[in-house]
Amino acid sequence: MRIFRTTTSVSAVTIAAVLAVPALAQDAGRDTIVVTGSLIGASREAAPAPVEVISAEELAAQGSPSMLELTKRLSASAGVMGDASQFDLRSQFNEGVASINLRGLGPQRTLVLLNGRRLASVASGNLPMVDVNLIPAGALERIEILKDGAAATYGSDAIGGVANFITRTDQQGFLASGDYRYVDGSAGDWNAALSWGGQIGPARLLVSGGYHRRGELTALDRDFTQLSYPANPQGGWSGGGSPGNFDFDGTLNGVRFDADEGCADLGGFRSLPGSNADLCQTQYLGFTNLVEPEDRYQLFADAAVDLADGVSLRLTGLYGRTDTVMTTSPSYLPTIAPSASAAFGGGGLFVIPQYAPALIDYCARFGADAGCSVDGGRAPREPALAYPVRFRPVLMGGNPLFDNARQTAVVPRHSDLYQFSGELTAALTPAIDLTAGVTYSEYDRYFEATDNFVDLLQNALAGFGGASCAYASPQSRAGMTLAELAAVAGTNGCHYFNPFSTGIAANALTGAANPSYAGAGNPLGLSLEPGAGLVNDASTLGDFYTVMHRQANTSLWVADLVASGLTGLELPGGEVGFAVGAQYRRDGYRRTYSAANNLDVYPCPGSVLDPAATCDPEVGAVGFLGANRDVQVSSDVWALFGEVRLPISDRVQAQLSARYEDHGLAGSTFDPQARVRIELTDWLAIRGGAGTTFRGPPPQNTLSDLVTLTFIGGAFRPVELLGNPDLKPESATTYSAGLLVDRGALRASVDYWRYDFRGPIESEPVSGMVSALFGASGTANCGNPAYAGLEARFTFSGGLCSAANVQRLATYAVNSADVSTSGVDFQASYDARLGPVKAQAGVSGSYVIHYDVDDVLVEGVLVQPAYDAAGLLNYQTTAYPLPRLKGQAWVQGALGDHSLRLQVNYVDSYRDQRGADVFGPNASALAGASVTAGKTIGSFTTVDAVWRWTVFDRTTVSLALYNLFDADPPFARLDQNFDPFTASPLGFTATLGLSQAF
Questions:
Q1: I need a labelling partner for 73 at 20 to 30 A (CA). Which of 79, 318, 388, 544 fits?
Q2: Collapsing DSSP states into helix, strand and coil, what is residue 67?
Q3: Per-residue b/e over 498-514, b at no fewer than 16 CB within 10 Å?
Q4: CA distances from 100 to 81, 237, 623, 919 (A)
Q5: At residue 649, does pLDDT exceed 60?
Q6: How far is the CA of 277 from the CAs of 42, 273, 274, 281, 504, in angstroms?
Q7: Which residues contact 511 (CB under 8 A, 6 or more apart)?
C-alpha cells in the first residue's frame, strides 16, 4: 500500500545536495507522531486533515525568506499585515509585527502554535493576532499549516486554520548561519542565528538564539510613492495640513475658508479654479517609511528528559523582542476645538486674533486678495479662523523637535514575547499515555505617539504659549478686553506660534526655500525674535506638542490534561485510537496610559489649563489620537474534548472530534468535526471533512476602547473602536473535499474548501458608514431623520454635518454580517533526472470562488449592502484585500554540490470597489474632474532565483535574488500608492548567506 503526502518540501536528494546541517540523530522508524489537526499519534501521511508541511529544507531552497515574506507568499493567506502600513486601522500600532491570515478571514482567526502550544496575542491594536516575527526561526524544523477549521481539536481562534511552528528535537552539535540582504535605498537587512543541540546525561537539549536587523526604507526611496494630487488624491495628501486653510476675515462674510497663499511654494496643491472649495492639499507620505528599522532578538530553549520508565518531562522557553519605531507626520491635525479655558477658545474654532503679528504680516503681504479684511494700511480688522480639521501646526516645514533629516516624528515601539511550557507524559498502559501540560505566555507592547494639547495650541496662536507664560490660565486673563489681551500677549514669558506658511523657512523634504518666509523678508519690520509672532521657536511648539505613551499587555494561561492511545478495539484496518481531555484557559488584557492621553488625568480640552474643567462627553486634552482610561479585563474558558481515529479498512481512515467550551457570560459552544480519507488505488486517494468551529470574544473587544486613524473627507480622522460587552462567540461550519495523487515522480493534490461563517466579531465598517451618511456629495443624508442614529456617531467641526467637517467617528465591535466563502487549493510537483541533474518542477496556489458578505446595518441603516468580496480591495470594509488567484511555480535542479531554483510568484489582479467619492468627480479640488486610475489593481508577478553551494561537508553558501526584474507593486488608490497587505515595495533584492555546522 502506497502512502500519500501533501507537502511543499523538496525531494530528499535535492535536500541532501542543498543543505548542510549538523549530524542528526534521525529516528528512521519514527512514523507515529502527533500531527497538526489531531490529538492522536499517527502517520502524517495517513492523516485525513489537509495539512501543508513546509520544511526547513524547503525554506532554505527558497532562500530562507523572512516570516513576513513567508506569510505573504502562502497561497492560502491573504491580507497580511507586516510592512509599515500605518494608514489602515487594522494594522495601526503594529509596527514590527507580522501575521498569518488564512483564507483572508482575519489574522485573529488563524490559531498560531509553537510545538502545539498557544502563544499570547499582540497587545497593541484591536486584532488579537499572534506575532510570528518572534517565532524562533533559527530553531525550526518545519511549519505545519492546517487549512481547515479546527476548533474541535484546538478550541477558540482556529476558524480559518492552524499554523503550527515545530522546532528541532534531534540536532547534534552547533549550527551557525548568517546573511545580508541588499535593498536599494536601504542599509539592508542582516540575520544571524546560532543553535546547539545534544545530550547532557539523560536530557535532550536544544538552545537557539537569533538576531535580525531590518533597514529603514523611506517613502522617498521609491518613485511610485511620489505622485501628484491629480494623479492620486488619496496618495498621501491631506486637506488639513501646514500650510493650511483659514478664514482670514473672521465671520465678516460668514465662515468660509481659503488656502494659505504659500501653499504651492511649499509643495502643496491648491484647488483648481472652478472647484467648489479653496483648499491647500499637503503631502504627508514623504515623512513616513515603507519599511521601519527593526532590531529583533529571539532566544529559545527546549529540554526533555525521561524521569522514569514510561515517564517523560519536556520544558520549553521562548523570549523574543522587537525594537522598532513609527515614522509619521511631523504633527497631526487637531480634530477637537479648544475650550473656553483657552484664550479665544470655546467657539468651536481655532482663532488667530487680529493683533497677532503673524496675521498682521500675512495680510500685509497678501491683502484682500488672500481673503483678509484689512484697513487702509492693510492691517487686519478681523481675526483669522480655522476649523480643527483644516490645518495643523507643522507639516511641510518639518518638526524641529525631531533631529533627523526630514524633521519628521519618530516614536519608538517595543515588543516582548514570553512563552514557557511544561509537559509531563506518563504511560498508563503500553498503549495509553496521559499528558499534563501547562503553558504561560505574555506579550508586552510599549509604544509612544505624538499629539497636540488643543487648548495650549490655541493659547499659542493668541500669544499666550510657552511653559512660562504668566497669562496661560483662564483665571489670569479673566475680565480682560481685547486691547488688554493684545497688550500682554507675547510678554511675561508668553510666546506666539505662527500657523501660516510665513512661519515655514523651507520644504523639509526637498529643501526648497519659501519665498514668503517671514524670517527672510519682513515688510513691516516686526520682531524676528523666535516666539515673538513671526518666527517660531521650538520651545513654544514643545509646550503644546506632546509625546505620550501607552503600554499594553496580553497574557495567557493554559492547563490541559489529555489521555490518548489505543482502545483495544479492532477494526479491519487496525486498532481504534482515541484522545479525551480537558482544558482551562485564562486570557488577560491590560492597557495603561501616560498622563497626556489618560482621561483620569485630563478628561477635557481645558483640563491642561484648569484642573476643574468639565465637558460632556469627555474627549481628553489632545486633539487627534484622543484619550482613554486604563483598563484591565480577563476571561476564563473551560473545555472538554474528545477524538477517535477509526481505521475502517486498510484504505479507509476516519477521524471524529468534538469539543465543548464554556466562555462564561459570553456563552458556550459545542463543535463536532468528522474527516475521512480513502485510498482508491495505490496512487489515488480522496479525503474530506465537515465540522463546526468557533471563536470566543477576546477581552479587548468586550470592554476596552481604542482610537485609530482613518482617511475621511480628505484627511485622517480619529476613529474610536469601542468595546461591546454583549458580544457572543462567532462560529462557522466548514467543509472540505480533496483528491490526492502519488504516482511515480508525480505528487499532486486538489482540495475544495468552504466556510459558512456566522456572527463574525468585527468593527463596524468605516467606509460604509461614511458613504451611507454623506454619499458622493458629502452631505447626502445629513439631517435625514432615518439616519439620525448614524449621524450621531460622528462629531463635526462647528456642528455642521458634512464629510469635510468630520472630527471623529465612533464604531463598536459587533457580531457582524454572516460570511460564506469557498475556493480551491492545488499543488503538484514532479521529480526527474536529466542526466546528472536531479530536477523538480512544481506549482501551488489557491483560487477563491466566492466570499459573500451579507448586509451590514449600523443604527438601523444599511451601510454595507451584501456583496462578493472575492477579487476586491475591500477598503475599510469587514473583509481584507482578496485577489482571487495566488500561487507559485518553480523549477529546481541539483548537480553535485550546487543547486539552483527559479520561482515565479503570482498575485491576480483585483478591483477597488469604491464609488464616486473616490473615482467620481472631484468638485472640491479638481473642478469636477474625475480620476479613474486605480479602479483595477493590476496583477503582481515576481521572479526569484536561489543558488546554493555546499562548499565543504558542512558549509553552505547561498545567493537569493528576489524580484529579479525589479517589478514595482501595482498602483492602488491608497496612501502609499500600493496595497501593502498584498504586494511588496522592496523591488529587486539580493541576499548572500552562509551556514556552518560543527
A1: 318
A2: helix
A3: bbbbbbbbbbbbeeeeb
A4: 8, 31, 34, 32
A5: yes
A6: 69, 9, 9, 11, 24
A7: none
Residue 332 near residue 626 (C-beta atoms within 8 A): no
- Contact between 996 and 955 under an 8 Å Cβ cutoff? The reply is yes
Name which of 650, 668, 649 is nearest 659 in CA terms: 668
pLDDT higher than 70, residue 991 = yes
CA–CA distance, 688 with 704 (Å, rounded to integer): 40
d(CA 510, CA 236): 16
With b meaning 16 or more CB within 10 Å and e meaning fewer, what string describes 623-654?
Answer: bbbbbbbebebebebebebbbbbbbeeebbbb
Q: How far apart are CA 374 and CA 793, in angstroms?
A: 40
3-state secondary structure of 537: coil
Q: 3-class DSSP state for residue 960? A: strand
- What letter represents residue 793's amino acid? R
- Which residue's entry shows cell 478664514? 247
- Mean pLDDT of the 385-407 span: 95
3-class state of residue 138 by DSSP: helix
| Distance between CA atoms of residues 926 and 818, nearest Å | 39
Residue 640: per-residue pLDDT = 97
pTM (2 decimals)? 0.91
**Cα–Cα dist 558/471, whole Å:** 57
Location of C-alpha cell 549530524: 23
Residue pointed to by grid coordinates 511552528: 165
Whether residue 837 contacts residue 898, with contact meaning beta carbons closer than 8 Å, is answered with no
- Give the pLDDT confidence of 727-770 residue by residue, as tens digits: 888 999 999 999 999 999 999 999 999 999 999 999 899 889 99
pLDDT for 376 equals: 80
| Burial of residue 614 (number of CB atoms within 10 Å: 0-12, 13-18, 19+) | exposed
> Number of C-alpha atoms within 13 angstroms, CB side, residue 896?
4
CA dihedral for 7, 319, 94, 243, sign (positive or negative): negative
Query: CA-to-CA distance for 211 and 223, rounded, in angstroms?
Result: 31
Q: Per residue in 349-360, pLDDT tens?
A: 999 999 999 999
Residues sharing a CB contact under 8 Å with residue 962, sequence separation 6 or more, in sequence order: 63, 942, 944, 986, 988, 989, 990, 991
Which grid coordinates are listed for 998? Answer: 560543527
Q: Which helix (H) or strand (E) holds 840?
A: strand 837-853
CATH of domain 12-216+293-328+412-449+549-997: 2.40.170.20
What is the DSSP annotation of 417-433?
EEEEEEEEEEEEETTEE
In this predicted structure, what is the pLDDT of residue 709? 74
C-alpha cell at 644: 477517535
Which residue(s) pair with 181 in the sheet?
A: 189, 991
Measured CA angle at 245 (ends 241, 247), to 5 deg? 155
Q: For residue 890, what are the CA distances in angstroms to 50, 142, 159, 903?
A: 22, 20, 30, 4
Per-domain residue ranges of the chain: 12-216+293-328+412-449+549-997, 235-279+330-407+453-535
CA 416 to chain centre: 17
Contact 944, 989 (CB under 8 A): no
Residue with cell 460564506: 820
Residue range 327-356: average pLDDT? 96
Q: What per-residue confidence (pLDDT) applies to 46?
A: 65
Range 817-839 average pLDDT: 96
Which residue's C-alpha cell is 475544495?
A: 752
Distances (CA, A) of 21 to 56, 64, 170, 285, 967: 10, 14, 11, 45, 34
Query: pLDDT-derived band of residue 11, with 50, 70 and 90 as boundaries?
Result: very low
Q: Among positive and negative, which fits the CA dihedral 349, 354, 358, 359?
A: positive
